């Protein structure tokens, strides 16, 4: 593997993380929950950076060639760098910039609403005995949401990004590879 492969992955990963973070800032600026209904809308943007990074390496740096192993290394480098940078940016935003934890408060409100809605639906559809079995799980989820910290939310979001990036790595490696 050559140095250009890793450099391209690192640069594209940093740019992807910044672009996805800017998307979160736009949603926050519009008073929408960035981790609610619009949570995974950034995946199209993230995919553009995968395609762009692989295209740039293949066409501009490697003489129109990208082998499968090179695509996987480039994709995982991009994915790891993007996930770590994205997590750091989210943590910095929630811990230091948004000091009154408005993002986390909105997240908690909407998550508790979802938990209560599901709890209500389960209560209506299950027998009282089966609902009592499920009630403990609802209480655990409720407590987990109430006690969430900026580091936990940032880690959760970056892990979602990493998992999506794993899929995108293989997808764009297959699309972009040329022997």
Low-pLDDT windows of residues: none
What sort of overall outline do the alpha carbons produce when their principal axes are compared? elongated
For the report, how would you describe the main beta sheet? none
How large is the radius of gyration? 20 Å
The helix/strand series, from N terminus to C terminus, equals HHHHHH
Q: What's the N-to-C terminus distance?
A: 15 Å
What does this protein structure show overall?
It is elongated, with a radius of gyration of 20 Å. The protein has six helices and no strands. The chain has helices at residues 3-29, 43-61, 68-97, 102-125, 128-146, 150-176. Helices cover 82% and strands 0% of the residues. The model has no long low-confidence stretch (mean pLDDT 86). The two termini are 15 Å apart. The longest helix has 30 residues, at 68-97. α2 packs across α6. It has a domain at 3-99 and 149-176. The chain has 179 residues and is an all-alpha fold.
List the helices and strands and how they pair.
Elements: H1 3-29, H2 43-61, H3 68-97, H4 102-125, H5 128-146, H6 150-176
In short:
The protein has 179 residues and is mainly α. The protein is 82% helix and 0% strand.
What are the main properties of this structure?
mainly alpha, 179 residues
